[in-house]
Target: DUF3221 domain-containing protein
Amino acid sequence: MKNLKRISFLVVLMTFVISCTTMKNDKNSAVSGKVESIESGKDGYTAKINTDTKEVYFATISIVNVGGPQNYKQLKIGDVVSLKGEIWKTDDENHIKVTQIVSVK
Model:
């Protein structure tokens, strides 16, 4: 009986560890696309980006996350941008916390 409890505990623990490692955020990924909308926030703004592959990303851009005012840019609707940062996904949305604005056209 003790062995069964130990094995069950190990199986649950391993399942938890594996699920946590697969949910890691991708910290240095790039997203490129066209700005479709902008929503102002307290410390910056969130831009809705449509990529060439028809994916939608919500890019959170703030002065703190891009490394200060010298790296901060206010995007406009219609800009074609390339951004780097930490990507995470919810059930139905893709998000990126922008750490670098690579280009704006």
In short: The chain has a mean pLDDT of 87. The longest helix spans residues 2-22. The helical segments are 2-22. The CA atoms of residues 17 and 95 lie 24 Å apart.
